[in-house]
């Protein structure tokens, strides 16, 4: 498996098929996909894209740490689940974000993904909430292990 940077448009097919199959394809295009400091990673095996993740310099409305990155659209082809692709994408994304000196990373994790993020050091903040058309989520955060910062909640 190889993790490499990809373009936003390269994430859209997997985002649509895996994360939003009941929605229009246009819903797989996310706000901030093309910001200068946004980056997207793909997990490849034999040059076939099998998993994706996107990372945005975006602040949460409820967390006040100065420098934040958001994870969105982490998805792998269904046949590749539980084979380490998500872990590899997350690890490479975190390494890049910590190089950029962010204080923390956050995401809105679907209920089915909470255990995955907890296993990688993220913690739930507050109560669960529903994103219409997608389902129940938790705000989850992870502090930069290389910095001494407080996490607001």
UniProtKB/TrEMBL annotation:
TM annotation in the entry: none
Q: N-acetyltransferase domain location, by residue?
A: 1-145
Q: Which Pfam families match?
A: Acetyltransf_10
> GO molecular function terms here?
acyltransferase activity
Say which domain of life the source belongs to: Bacteria
Its EC number(s)? 2.3.1.-
Provide the alphabetized UniProt keywords. Acyltransferase, Transferase
Name the chain's protein: GNAT family N-acetyltransferase
Q: Which organism is it from?
A: Listeria swaminathanii
């Amino acid at each position: 498996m190889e993790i490499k940077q990809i373009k936003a448009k390269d994430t859209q097919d997997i985002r649509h098929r895996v994360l939003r199959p009941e929605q229009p394809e246009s819903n797989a295009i996310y706000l901030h996909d093309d910001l200068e400091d946004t980056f997207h990673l793909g997990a490849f095996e034999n040059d076939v894209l099998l998993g994706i993740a996107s990372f945005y310099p975006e602040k949460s409305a409820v967390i006040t740490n100065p420098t934040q990155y958001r994870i969105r659209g982490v998805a792998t082809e269904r046949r590749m689940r539980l084979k380490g692709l998500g872990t590899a994408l997350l690890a490479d994304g975190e390494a890049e974000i910590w190089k950029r000196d962010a204080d923390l990373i956050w995401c809105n994790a679907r209920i089915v993904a909470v255990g995955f993020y907890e296993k990688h050091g993220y913690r739930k903040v507050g109560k669960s909430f529903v994103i219409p058309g997608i389902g129940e989520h938790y705000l989850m955060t992870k502090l930069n292990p290389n910095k001494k910062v407080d996490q607001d909640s």
